[in-house]
Amino acid sequence: MSPLDSPSSRTFPSGPVNSEDPVLQGLPSGSYNPSEALHPSAHALVNGSPQCNAGVVSVVLVRYEDSPVGPYDELALSFHGFANPHQKSTSWRITNTYVSSLQSTWNGRKNWNIPKHLARFKFVSSGPNTSSIEVSLLDAEKPFLTASLTDSLLPAIPILPRIITPFVSIVQPPLVSGLPEDLTNDEWLSIAPRYDGWWKLACIRPSEGGHASYGDGVHFPQFKSFWVGVKFMGTLIVPESAQLRTMVE
Question: How far is 164 from 153, CA to CA, in rounded Å?
Answer without folding.
Answer: 23
